[in-house]
Amino acid sequence: MSILISRRDLLRTAAVAAGVWTTSDVPIRAQSKSPNEKLNIAGIGIGGRGAADVNGAGHENIVALCDVDEQRGGKTFAQFPRAKRYKDFCKLLDEMHGQIDAVVVGTPDHTHAVAGVMAMKLGKHCYCEKPLTHSVSEARMMAQVARENKLVTQMGTQIHAGANYRRAVELVKSGAIGPVSEVYVWLGANFKGPPTPTGVEQPDAPTDRPPAPPTLDWDLWLGPAAERPYHPVYVPGRWRGWWNFGNGTLGDFFCHYCDLAFWALDLRHPTSVEAQGPVHPDSAARWTIARQEYPARGELPPVTLVWHNGGAYPALVKEQNIPPWSSAVLFRGAKGMLIADYGKHQLLPEDRFRDFQRPDPFIPDSVGHHREWTEACKSGGPTTCNFEYSGALTEAALLCNVALRVGKRLTWDAANLKAVGCPEADAFLRREYRRGWTL
What we know:
Layout: H1 7-18, E1 40-44, H2 49-56, E2 61-66, H3 74-79, E3 84-86, H4 89-96, E4 102-105, H5 109-121, E5 125-129, H6 136-148, E6 153-156, H7 163-173, E7 180-187, H8 218-222, H9 248-265, E8 272-276, E9 288-294, E10 303-309, H10 315-319, E11 327-333, E12 337-340, E13 345-348, H11 369-379, H12 387-406, E14 410-413, E15 418-419, H13 426-429
Parallel strand pairs: 1-2, 1-4, 2-3, 4-5, 5-6, 7-10
Antiparallel strand pairs: 7-11, 8-9, 8-14, 9-10, 11-12, 12-13, 14-15
């Protein structure tokens, strides 16, 4: 009889042998360093966005790098020639756990959780790209493991560090537009997001089987995702359009734009979620309209958040003569409105705020999104997009797709991670991993 040992079990066995696990099964946390001592960092997934993240942490010691595609990761490998090279992040963590303090995870979404949880259970601080995970339950697990192991974490919502977002948050929090009860977020039809998987509306998974490039280890790229043959419609980059690996345009951008609403209004878990858009079993929706209800938070009133991507603008844009920015977050308060995107913001209606005196800045400027994390790893201080905050933000994003795929309004029990009276949602809240993979 053969016994299949999971990658996590193999890694844990090696960690126990190396003496980094305690008898209570809780790993020893990475030791804090002095502000002048550099961290030893490993990069997992170093092409595309992952390359930018490794570079963002490049002021520290990059001691190990991992990518399943030698060509895709080639530029970063060459940039840090002294870093040890890997294809399999499990092998990296097995061999290097005693030599690294932190990891940067820039893989496709479907591998975020398995890489992040493995690293954090070995006591490594973690920076992970957005959305934090591929499924709702994984986001909750990432936050839990980080909290239990007292680790410094940051999700890659880089725009959070920009001055524009901070000034917009200050206006909302200082009451410039009064109590806010509605937020509208849109990526208009002319928004240049990621392409559809094959350039046509809602395609099926391809059936032909071209060979994988010799530089790519397709089995490692699949990781925990359901088995399917290699095809160039998945990699590089186009994986976002397929449910097996990504969550479409909504999964790609909700965490960036709705971050502003979560920050300004202290949002956390919605109580209900509903969504509409074209539903297909293989590929993500080309356009989505979603509506979420958030409860009151102390003196702050309940909030309705409406999301639009890939289609028409919210009706409010035309009705209220709001500037039709291609992408925006619109706060609607009792005294007025605030519209913002990545680089600018504006109070509306303009004539009402012509003589408005904005508050003195009270949110400090960032030292840089990646540097916030590396400095906090040394000091033990907080980060602005830690996994407690960004895990809830990711859950909210992915719940929109869960509601879309089940075709029902979800009443959300956040404490128990359950859609009340909707057992069919469970299949989309928690994903089944391929054999040999587990958290």
